[in-house]
Design brief:
This protein is mainly beta and 1701 residues long. It is built from 11 helices and 131 strands. Helix 5 packs across helix 7. The longest helix has 20 residues. The N terminus and C terminus are likely disordered.
Length: 1701
């Protein structure tokens, strides 16, 4: 088995290897090459026939085989088109013929084809392109073709044509800008390595859809440009570019043309979706420019400031009538200047949203376009980009009604009764943060359970608003509108009132609204849910999905069996509703979205839109058009814009209401209905008749008379459906049965009003219903007592209310005042007074008149009257506000007597007027201060002063009350009831937590903060009573003292504290001063870990000491700072004993022994580190250089010698080759350099070290390199040019070198430092030289003398110089010292790099740093810890790690995250969790399965789906509704049916033919008819009496007779003359007489003895046979007609009897 596998693997390898190798005919040597240029298809053979250059080509002797064609050494191919005769260098050219459907082989392929030979027969002139056929096999070898050719039959030749170059690839159009001009670049790639050119063509698409060629050009580059000039090419054009290649040497051979993709030049709008639903969602709209945007601003502005402004507009279908159907996030965008990428040069993002308009307007289209651009740029000016079209599909909204006791109608139309009490969730949106809670209380029924809505709370995001009247008793309490919570964002909630407060509507930005129709027993509610809420609602209003069977659901989505369990499921426990608390989620500060109406024309103002009309087209309500046909008053600003929360406004809806303000002291209240248990089952239904004897028929008649005959039902009859009226009547009948009161007859009228408005809002043409508009604006058509206007009824004088039904010319009357007109300013808010009575009318002239009563001269007098506007509550109540400046008690400066006690009481007379002319009766309002007065409200108000009170400056104070001016004064009535008295019980301040002992140390600055507390809360002042010198206490209680040097003493400090009333307390503090025990000059400093008053200190040690008391001496000799010497440690310092030759504090300075001239005169001295060396003794002397002795002929010494000293052997001076190339170097002890160079070569002159031509100047290259020769024309020598200027020793060496180089042509360099009397021996051959005397041949100033032999000879050197006349060197009488050279005769100067009086100081440029020592010119000897040419670089050993910088000797400056002497310790700023490893200060290396900055986030691969949370590696916690390893499996409970798949939480994806949340319903298309049920996909279960696929065919169990047609279940349509269930009975228009029977239509079968049409004539028996025969014939003809199934309808068939003769 293993062997078979090995063989198989080998075969696979060989096969792959074989596939990789080219075919043998394609390999070199596998084919021959035909490369005659005459084989070209364009070459005419007549030229060969006329010349003898070459014979005609004949392939009859061609050897069969594979061939490749070449023309001029380029690959060629056989032509595939007909080649004319006498071409290709022959008479009959052979070309490759491709039949229909045949093509050349692809790369690597081989194909069997045929070739044709062209010929024409003489004398005919026509050419046969395929006179002969030859088989040819063609192989594609990648870059060329090979052909399997056979010999031809005659003198024929195979033709060749040049292979066209490869076509360009990747043709692409890209824009680019140059200044303010825009160009398009057509770029492409060329795969050819030959010399090719390119043909580029530009075209565009015309308005008719045709191609228009713009430009054609040839180029050698792989790109071409064309300008968008605004003439030939404009913005908005669709542009194309095509390119083909051609050989430069054969332009006629070109490749196929390759075209680019279409390029749109301009701005385009791209919508994320072109078909959207009217659901309020946001959709993206991209505005993109495919060309660079020009900079249209000033020239000096930044490119970032350059933008192109575009104005966006919308145009909707039927916009003039219906308004815009789409809103935008902005009506203008800015396109910025930037680089182009992926076909986009600039981009801006907008959002659009379909407008929710609640009109059944079907599907409308909207064009979003850009207005024409206005600019100075010629290209862009007037350009209008293409628009995009959006289709908005209509989504109907849904309504939920909760009326009277309450009858509830869900969003889907299901009705049920809710008799429970408590708090419930009426509506909750899953798509929006919107929720409505309602409260229901018992209302109106004694015998049966009945409940009504008494309030609701609406939550919209973080805004919570309540409209509530549940805090009180039925019939007494009034509704209060409260803003319970206000979000930080601008609110989109709108509050409006209609019909003078009878209807309160709260509208949301989503289009939802809640409307309350207020009555004395409570309120009825109408809710609207927008189309976006479809399938996303919960609560008592149902699910809103068009299906009524699933309305009874729980919060978890489970279906509930009955309405009782459904209502109980949505009941809220006490304290858990929005009535009691507000959402706890933190408010967001994001700005609300803006929606802009950007119509091209001004928007219409139809039907009283709720959005205010402003010049700004944008608002946060832009995507919802809130149309109200009932006149409304927007009162949102009275609530939402107020800064204060909990502003509560009472609404008293008796007959007329108004939104006025009142303060609500508490936020929540006790609602007892929440604490009553819900009934397990509702009680038995009520029965007829009622307790008062009202029967069901009587109740129904009363309800129909009230509702059907109402003005709203009559006026809206065209829109209100009969089902709506019947439903309202049924609600009314139920109310009468429960309450047994006629007052509930009008309870469902608001339902008809709201439903009528809804139907009219949905109409496209509302102007077709003027009578409906009038009845909605003016209920009951103003009762005939007013005129109807757009804003409601304008009542005639004497009438009022919203429908002008009440009389208003009666004078109001006040019955009583709130609190009986007496108000204690200490116990209540007396700024407003509530007035009760009757006849109050809601009008702008409703006013309260206040007249103040003043107590003057012992009696009350009246002040001037003052009028203030009143707040209308209802016809029996209103509120009046006291005049602004008199809401408090009057100030009294005199001391009131007992008779003047009323002086401090404020009294007012109040009257009310409806019109400003007629006033009611007056009542008295009394305000008093209950702390000082006692007022009894009886028949006569009596106020007296209280005992134990003070009346000071018009203000009352109780006994012992502290004065607001000074805490030292109080009210003491026994001392003085009218002035302040000194407080007797003022207690002194008390010190807080004083320590028994404070500790300090010698020289310390003691600080301690004293604490005290005053029982009366007065301000306190501290002071020092006694203490040591220097101690002080600040007024705020800070004790400070600079302790003296006295040690061990206990010092006492006495301090005091006093309050504003001079009460004082004293205390003393003991301070113990400890000695400072730091040694060796250490200083005591307070410990940073403990308070300063503890006396704990630490020692700050001086340099050289350490330890807790500075008692440890630091060994300053570690490491050895003396380097070469011996270190001796001392306390805090060290000293060095240096060896011989070294000096300095740390033995780092070398002693220059050469300064004492230790060597023999004339012998050079060389200073070394710690020592010195001497050179060789002069000639004729012997010794060690320090002591030299002159030798005589006999070898005796003339002078005693010095003791010899050993010196190291130095290398030979000539080893460095210091002389000019080719010049011999001689060692010499007579010069300081130690060497002498020979003469320069022929044609050059110089000193041997530097040689030059006459017209060149030489710049020395240094001792180790040749000189640099610079051409220079020297001036003629003068006498002054023989001397050289003494160099400036203060100049830098570089400067002196430059000066010396500049004068080289005047004074040649000399050998410096020659001993006195030493002469250079000239070269013997130097006397005569070849050549002629020329200028500059000899040393300057030395004459040149020609010789007889044609040579020249230089005279002697000038005085002070020695040499051969060509080269002369300065001679100094005395030897130059160390570091010196003889630069001029008898003149010694410092060598380069030295300075000083004796040239002993080396010069380093730049200077040595960090105490480095300059030991040689530009050579620094660095101290320990520094390196570099100038010791500028600090050196740390070992080096600094982790990027640390060596800042000083062995001192590292560490980067962030590292510490330690060498930055070797990493400090991790993050705590790596879950086993992570800290690899750098801010980076954790996490273990597998973890990620994040601190490895705190688990990693799940694949990711947790559907909102799952990854808590551990590859471990997900799934949300509700999902399970599985990665939460990828959805959970549906109950499961999906009929093969549906669960795709999300409780959401099924149904197969074709099923629908529903659980795929439980079948789908039949078209739908089943005639009450049939869809029981399977496209399967109908027909009701009885129907059949067919869609149950559209009726079934008659007994067949219709006599031509009858079955038109319904068991229903026949009979022809004329027949009747009955099966059309079995004939019809005779005249009744048959005398016992005759009607047997056929209008034919009577008579009894024997009678005849005639009606058997009225007696007949003889002999004629009876003939009559029967005639009857039989008629019956036969009639039955024939029935069988033909063509009865004659509507035709009377008459059978005439036989005439009796």
């Amino acid at each position: 088995m293993k062997r078979d596998v090995s063989v198989l693997q080998l075969l696979v390898f060989l096969f792959a290897h074989a596939r990789a190798e080219p075919p043998p005919e394609c390999a070199p040597g596998g084919h021959s090459v035909l490369q005659e240029p005459y084989r070209s298809a364009t070459f005419s053979s007549s030229w060969l026939q006329q010349s003898s250059v070459h014979e005609l080509i004949c392939d009859h002797s061609l050897t069969a085989g594979w061939y490749q064609f070449q023309l001029f050494h380029k690959p060629a191919s056989m032509p595939t088109h007909c080649v004319q005769v006498n071409h290709c260098g022959t008479q009959a050219p052979v070309w490759l013929s491709l039949g229909e459907g045949e093509t050349l082989p692809g790369p690597g392929e081989v194909r069997q084809l045929s070739a044709c030979a062209a010929w024409h027969l003489y004398p005919s002139t026509s050419t046969d392109c395929c006179m002969f056929r030859l088989p040819v096999t063609v192989r594609h070898c990648g870059n060329f073709y090979v052909y399997l050719l056979q010999p031809t039959q005659g003198c024929m030749a195979y033709c060749a044509q040049e292979v066209p170059p490869p076509a360009p690839s990747s043709v692409l159009i890209a824009p680019e800008s140059r200044g303010n001009s825009v160009y398009l670049r057509c770029s492409f790639h060329s795969g050819s390595n030959s010399s090719v050119g390119f043909m580029v063509s530009w075209s565009r698409l015309s308005a008719l859809g045709l191609r228009e060629e713009l430009k054609q050009e040839t180029t050698l580059h792989t790109s071409a440009l064309i300008e968008l000039d605004g003439f030939n090419l404009r913005l908005g054009d669709k542009i194309y570019c095509s390119s083909s290649s051609f050989f430069l040497d054969s332009p006629e051979i070109h490749s196929p043309s390759v075209e680019s993709a279409e390029f749109f030049a301009g701005i385009r709008l791209r919508a994320a979706q072109s078909r959207v639903s009217e659901d309020g969602r946001l959709y993206e709209l991209l505005v993109e420019s495919t060309v660079p945007v020009p900079c249209l601003k000033e020239k000096d502005s930044s490119p970032h400031d350059c933008t192109l402004s575009l104005d966006i507009s919308t145009s909707s279908q039927d916009e003039e009538q219906l308004g815009s159907d789409v809103s935008l996030s902005s009506c203008a965008v800015e396109l910025g200047v930037g680089p182009c990428a992926e076909g986009v040069c600039s981009q801006a993002l907008l959002h659009f949203s379909p407008v929710t308009d609640f009109i059944l307007d079907g599907n409308r289209t909207t064009n979003i376009s850009v207005k024409p651009i206005a600019t100075d740029n010629f290209l862009w000016n007037g350009y209008t980009p293409e628009s995009t079209q959006i289709t908005v599909t209509d989504v109907p909204s849904a309504y939920c009604y909760v009326f009277t006791d309450p009858h509830t109608v869900t969003f889907d139309g299901r009705s049920y009764e809710n008799y429970q009490i408590g708090t419930f969730v009426l509506y909750r949106s899953v798509a929006w943060a919107v929720e409505v809670h309602v409260r229901q209380w018992e209302c109106g029924s004694v015998e049966h359970a009945a409940s009504c809505v008494c309030g609701f709370v609406l939550r919209d995001g973080h805004d919570v608003v309540s409209f509530d009247m549940c805090d009180g008793e039925l019939g007494e309490t009034k509704p209060q509108l409260s803003v319970k919570n206000k979000g930080l964002n601008k609110s989109s909630l709108r509050i409006t009132e209609s019909y003078q407060g009878r209807k309160i509507t709260m509208s949301l930005s989503s289009g939802a609204f809640v409307r309350a129709d207020v009555s004395s027993w409570g309120m009825s509610l109408t809710l609207r849910a927008p189309g976006a809420d479809r399938g996303h609602t919960q609560g008592l209003c149902g699910t809103y999905d068009g299906q009524t069977h699933n309305d009874f659901h729980s919060a978890e989505g489970a279906l509930l069996p009955d309405e009782h369990s459904f209502i109980s499921a949505w009941r809220l426990p006490p304290g858990k509703s929005l009535f009691d608390s507000v959402p706890s989620s933190p408010p967001t500060t994001t700005s609300p979205r803006k929606f802009c109406h950007c119509q091209t024309t001004p928007p219409p103002t139809p039907h009283r839109a709720q959005t205010p009309l402003t010049s700004d087209p944008c608002s946060h309500l832009g995507n919802v058009r809130l149309s109200s046909l009932i006149p409304t008053l927007d009162v949102t600003a009275e609530y939402i814009s107020s800064v204060e929360l909990l502003k509560t406004h009472p609404l008293h809806p008796n007959k007329a209401q108004s939104l006025s303000q009142s303060h609500l002291e508490d936020f929540t209240y006790f609602f007892p209905e929440d604490h009553e248990p819900a009934p397990r089952q509702p009680d038995s239904p009520p029965a007829w008749p009622t307790h008062s004897g009202l029967s069901e028929e009587q109740a129904r008649a009363q309800c129909r008379g009230t509702l059907v005959n109402s003005s709203i039902a009559q006026g809206c009859a065209r829109l209100l459906q009969k089902s709506t009226l019947d439903q309202a009547v049924e609600m009314c009948v139920s109310d009468l049965q429960l309450k047994d009161e006629d007052s509930w007859l009008n309870g469902t009228l608001p339902l008809l009003e709201n439903e009528c408005e809804r139907r009219l809002v949905e109409q496209r043409r509302r102007e077709d219903y003027p009578e409906v508009l009038a009845i909605l604006r003016c209920p009951s058509l103003c009762s005939g007592n007013g005129q109807c206007s757009e804003w409601g009824c304008v009542c005639f004088p004497g009438f009022g209310s919203y429908d002008c039904s009440s009389l208003s010319d009666q004078i109001p009357e006040i019955s009583e005042l709130e609190r009986s007109g007496v108000c204690d300013v200490r116990q209540a808010d007396c700024s407003r007074v509530r007035v009760f009575g009757h006849g109050f009318r809601d009008s702008y002239q409703l006013k309260c008149e206040f007249v103040q009563e003043k107590f003057v001269d012992g009696e009350w007098v009246l002040d001037e009257p003052r009028l203030v506007l009143a707040s209308f509550l209802d016809v029996t109540a209103l509120e009046c506000q006291l005049p602004l400046e008199d809401r408090r008690l009057p100030a009294v400066s005199q001391q009131p007597t007992a008779a003047e006690a009323n002086r401090a009481v404020s009294r007012w007379q109040i009257r009310v007027s409806n019109d400003g002319y007629s006033y009611s009766n007056a009542k008295i309002v009394t305000l008093y201060d209950g702390r000082c007065h006692i007022c009894n409200a009886g028949t006569e108000l009596l106020c007296t002063l209280r005992e134990k009170t003070c009346f000071i400056s018009g203000v009352c104070y109780g006994e012992g009350e502290i004065s607001p001016i000074s805490p030292c004064l109080s009210c003491l009535p026994d001392s003085s009831p009218h002035t302040w008295s000194s407080a007797h019980k003022n207690q002194p301040p008390v010190f807080q937590s004083l320590p028994p002992l404070l500790r300090s140390f010698s020289g310390d600055s003691l600080e301690y903060q004293l604490q005290a507390l005053d029982p009366e809360g007065s301000a306190l002042v501290f002071s020092l009573v006694s203490g040591p010198d220097g101690a002080s206490v600040s007024p705020g209680g800070l004790l400070t003292w600079r302790t003296s040097n006295s040690e061990g003493d206990a010092h006492t400090i006495r301090v005091s504290v006093s309050d504003r009333c001079a009460a004082q307390s004293t205390a003393q503090i003991q301070v113990s001063v400890l000695p400072c025990s730091c040694l060796n000059g250490g200083t005591c400093v307070p410990s940073p870990l403990l308070p300063r008053s503890t006396g704990v200190y630490v020692c700050a040690c001086p340099r050289g000491f350490r330890g807790g008391r500075c008692d440890e001496d630091i060994d300053d000799c570690k490491p050895n700072p003396c380097r070469y010497g011996r270190c001796i440690d001392a306390p805090g310092s060290f000293s060095c004993i240096c060896p011989a030759g070294m000096t300095g504090h740390t033995c780092r300075e070398d002693v220059d022994e050469c300064l004492s001239q230790p060597c023999f005169p004339g012998v050079g001295c060389n200073n070394t580190l710690g020592s010195f060396t001497c050179g060789h003794c002069p000639p004729g002397f012997s010794g060690d250089g320090r002591n030299c002795t002159q030798e005589n002929i006999s070898g005796g010494a003339l002078f005693p010698s010095r003791p010899k000293s050993s010196r190291p052997l130095s290398p030979s001076p000539c080893s460095r080759r210091p002389c000019h190339p080719g010049v011999q170097c001689f060692e010499s002890v007579h010069v300081s350099a130690g060497y002498v160079c020979g003469p320069c070569p022929h044609g050059l002159h110089g000193n041997g070290r530097i040689c030059r031509r006459t017209n060149q100047r030489t710049v020395p290259g240094g001792a180790d390199g040749p000189p640099h020769v610079i051409t220079h024309n020297p001036p003629p020598p003068t006498s002054s040019s023989l001397l050289r200027k003494q160099p400036d020793r203060r100049a830098r060496p570089k400067d002196r070198t430059t000066e010396r180089n500049q004068t080289t042509d005047l004074s040649p360099a000399v050998h410096r430092g020659q001993p006195r009397g030493t002469q250079l021996t000239p070269d013997p051959g130097a006397g005569e030289r070849g050549g002629a005397c020329e200028e500059g041949t000899c040393f300057p100033g030395v004459p040149c003398e020609p010789t007889a032999a044609g040579l020249y000879k230089c005279s002697s050197c000038p005085h002070g110089y020695a040499g051969d006349g060509v080269t002369c060197q300065a001679v100094c009488k005395y030897p130059c010292g160390r570091n010196m050279e003889c630069s001029l005769p008898n003149t010694c100067t410092c060598k380069e790099g030295y300075t000083g009086y004796s040239c002993h100081i080396a010069v380093c440029r730049p200077d040595c740093k960090n105490q480095g020592r300059c030991v040689r010119p530009s050579v620094c000897e660095c101290p320990l810890g520094y390196i570099g040419p100038t010791c500028e670089e600090a050196h740390c050993d070992p080096p600094c790690l982790h990027g640390g910088i060596c800042a000083a000797r062995n001192h590292c400056t560490c980067p962030y995250g590292y510490v330690g002497p060498r930055c070797e310790i990493m400090v991790c700023s993050r705590h790596c969790e879950n086993g992570g490893e800290c690899v750098s200060p801010d980076v954790c290396r996490c273990k597998t399965g973890w990620q994040g900055p601190t490895c705190a986030s688990a990693l799940c691969d694949p990711l947790c789906a559907n909102g799952g949370t990854c808590i551990k590696p590859n471990s997900c916690v799934c949300p509700s509704g999902f399970y599985g390893a990665h939460c990828h499996i959805a959970l549906c409970n109950p499961p999906c049916k009929n093969g549906g798949q669960c795709i999300r939480n409780n959401m099924c994806s149904c197969p074709e033919g099923y629908t529903g949340r659980r795929c439980q319903r079948s789908v039949c298309e078209p739908m089943c008819m005639n009450r049939a049920k869809c029981v399977g996909p496209n399967t109908c279960s027909c009701a009885s009496g129907w059949s067919g696929d869609r149950c559209s065919k009726p079934v008659c169990l007994q067949r219709c007779k006599n031509g009858g047609e079955c038109i319904g279940p068991n229903t026949c349509q009979c022809p004329a003359g027949w009747e009955g269930l099966q059309c079995q009975s004939p019809v005779c228009k005249q009744a048959c007489l005398n016992g005759g029977r009607c047997v056929l239509p209008d034919y009577c079968h008579c009894r024997k003895g009678f005849k005639g049409l009606t058997c009225a004539i007696k007949a003889r028996d002999t004629r009876h046979t003939l009559q029967l025969a005639t009857l039989s014939a008629v019956l036969f003809r009639f039955h024939q007609e029935i069988r033909k199934n063509k009865p004659r309808k509507h035709e009377e068939r008459r059978i005439c009897g036989v005439k009796n003769e």
